[in-house]
User: Fold this.
Amino acid sequence: MEVLLFELTLTFYFAATVVSVAELFKGSKATSRLILIFAVAGFVLHTATIIFRYVDAGHLPITNLHEASSFFSWCIVLIFFFLEYRYRLDLLGPFTMPVVFLLMLSSSILPREIKPLSPVLQSYWLGIHTSLAFLGDAAFAMAFGIGIMYLIQEHHLKSKHLGGLFQRLPNLQILDEINYRLITIGFPLLTLAIITGALWAESAWGSYWRWDPKEVWSLITWFIYALVLHVRLTAGWRGRKAAMLSVVGFICVIFTFFGVNLLLKGLHAFI
Assistant:
């Protein structure tokens, strides 16, 4: 049942992605509504998939790359719905659903076997620490999408191509404000994830920090987003600079998520 639900989820997210790409070239209220319908259907099935996996595993399913990629994409769709409800942004789907689909596609080709938890992972910190981290990263993923939208809109404005996509994208001020708000959501979540991870490490290994590769790259990511907030408040960095830092920050998020687990050995390795 879980496998069927997962495949149906992937199908609906793929459909939402296809319509999203089409909307970039010729969008309408109908295509926007269709993206939302496919995304909602996929999210409902996705939630059911996670619940079934939870029942089978007996814990929050985030202990291997298959589960983590799936849960990460679920968190991104959750933030996507929040932004749709709060801001009613045009063209948000095309800058969100492809990322969601790629994460789910990577999840689909990764090993799905449920293995018994190691003694270290048998802790209440597992759900707390990882949920905070994934929700924070999801906010950064949406800030990445908004940042890309900002850079495209700014390019159209500077080149004086004021038709087509320019007229359908939100104005620069709105995009900059939403980018900032997303980072102010993601940053405290990441901070709490690092703190709870340190507390978990102390209870498991007797030290708060062990310079594990994922710990190091999480700290690098934290500093990047701390820099975004700092220079915005002190030096007035807004707009293009903030958007570019959002893109760089999310690249670090993706490397921390995939690169560290696949390329570097450490205590946080899923395998």
Notes: The chain has a mean pLDDT of 88. DSSP finds nine helices and no strands in the chain. The CA atoms of residues 25 and 165 lie 8 Å apart.
